[in-house]
Amino acid sequence: MQIIRYANRLEIRNPGFSLKSQDHLGEPGSQLRNPKIAAALYDTRLAETKGSGIRVMRESMEQAGLTPPLFESDRGNDQFVARYFFHHFLGAEDIAWLAQFKDLHLSEDEAKALIVVREAGALNNGTYRELTKVDTLTASQALRRLRDVVRQNYLRPLMREGRLTMTNPQEPNDPQQAYRAM
Length: 182
Known about the structure:
It contains six helices and six strands, in the order ββααββααααββ. With 182 residues, the chain is α+β, with helices and mostly antiparallel strands. The chain has two domains: 1-88, Heat Shock Protein 90 (2-Layer Sandwich); 90-181, no CATH class.
């Protein structure tokens, strides 16, 4: 396990992806990798009821008015990441930062997504669904709209001015496309 403290968040990286799908994280019940260890931790009260941890963390952070924790299960890299942000969600600083996007007429969910991108550096479909409590199709549509709006209103003008370049210009729509400041 690796615990990394950034200026704006705490990340806990654990080897092994979640056996539960991201859509079902926080629901009662567990799928245990090692039931004997889990039982021992539960019996000695070092762990709560099996399968309640993520739900309890989400509820506790929401009650405190903090940004909801984000969980990412990555089967490809065989790891599970929990991210805990240190600030209140959509606080005064966030609202001031979002003001630069007022012409885009962002929904509340889109504003939340941009805050997470600013803080964590990226946002995928599963994290968007977790953050906004929407289904996969709605998340895909919202992320596509955000991608297109950011590309049209921010990235393309910066590229025309020569202040930004694609790292993979041969494939501008590559999902792994990144940009480099000039």
